[in-house]
Amino acid sequence: MKELTAIRRVNRFLSDKTRVLARPFLPDNPARLARITQRILSLSESETGRVLHKIMLDFERRHRDIRLIFLRHYQMLRHLLSDNDPLSRRTNGLSDERKLLLGAYFTCEYSIEAAAFFNPSIVAHPNQDNLPQGSTRFIISFRATGEGHVSSIVFRTGTINANHALQFDPVSPYVETPQKTENPSYDKNTFRLKLSEMGSFNDISQTILGNLDDQFTLNQLNDQVWYYGEGHPAPGADKTLEEIKWLALSNYQLCFRSDRDLSECVIFPVSNNESKGLEDARFVRFTDDDATVTYYATYTAYNGFAILPQLLSTRDFLTFDIATLNGKSARNKGMAMFPRKIGGRYMMVSRQDGENMYVMASDNLHFWNAATLLRKPAEPWEFFQLGNCGSPIETEAGWLVLTHGVGAMRQYCIGAILLDLDDPSRIVGRLRQPLLIPDEQEREGYVPNVVYSCGAMVHRGELIIPYAMSDSVSGIATLSVDDLLESLLHNK
Predict the structure, then answer these.
(1) pTM listed for this prediction
(2) Do residues 467 and 477 lie in contact, with contact meaning Cβ atoms separated by under 8 Å?
């Protein structure tokens, strides 16, 4: 057997501290919020104009539509002030300049990539129009981490031509978050199943759901929760009603503007479940039985205390649906979907116990209750922990799964296994040595001695592996799929 070598390309993805979001900056203390607002309102009209003019000179070129952002944050302020508060009444009938200035004071910049930029995942772009023959347009997602170690999902795009040359599109200097759909809809049966899993499907929730259609909106649900709370002040009712609202707010829709470049789009935490970040999204281009293509990403929501597996779905990378992943096997980090059903069932590879690899199957995309042990750590470079590096890739020889192994000194390496096409619980090939080990240029960074990927793709017989180097920089490695399969099958 010839030595298997992954070729490191010269391409590098670096963090850019100048790419900043304009985020709300609202104190939690209502009394302090009122005091700050009072100070701003005490300025004369001329003083208001002078202060606002200086702010616009300093920040207008750093953001698209900064005025719209200020007005949006002003409306958030208005919502927080009580309608009965005299201060709230004073904010009625304000000039546009005063509204903008109030919004500016309750806004801050957040550098989304300032701390770390890592863990990429690559998929074919949904738009493959107007490309030279043999070329593929792609999207790479990254985990970007900023102040407070809060993680978000960001994107880059590019093309790879028939000769495997990579070209990356320019990155916009602007970034923005999507609009959260104010009144999302829900499926009653899925909602009921999740409440049952939470131990919250009881007479109260049954009554509320019984008054709703099979498909209902958040506003309709809130109305029923309110009606029940007003008419049934029973012991324990408050807990159930809060859990119903928590579940609804954990499932939502995000929409980006269609005129924005994808590199401007940032999926930033918007719910309490993910207040400390969205971690390690593993994207897959999933083809359903009717040939419909949907892009899914499994990721980990983190609130600073607990993790929650989540599922993101999109068809155009403009509108994203976010849903909880449920069931006793939907736990731990590192769940990755297969790109199609197998035997009529959805399938994933996962890590249930923080140490070993598992394979899971389910009839329902959102509920995972069965997991089968796939592989335990066997080689020295993976003795500490074994997991996947993204979704399985279909080849004629079997399902190719990139793995990560953790060895001595917490060194992360990338390896591979091969699973049977019809029975992915059966391993038909594996590598005894890693494909990638951190070299001297890759081992220094935010988390030293790590190479890691969240998903690869195949282009014209070549495996394209985007990978992170010590959580600080990302690059690309490639190798022949035929050579890799030969090595895998040599070690059955």
Answers:
(1) 0.91
(2) yes
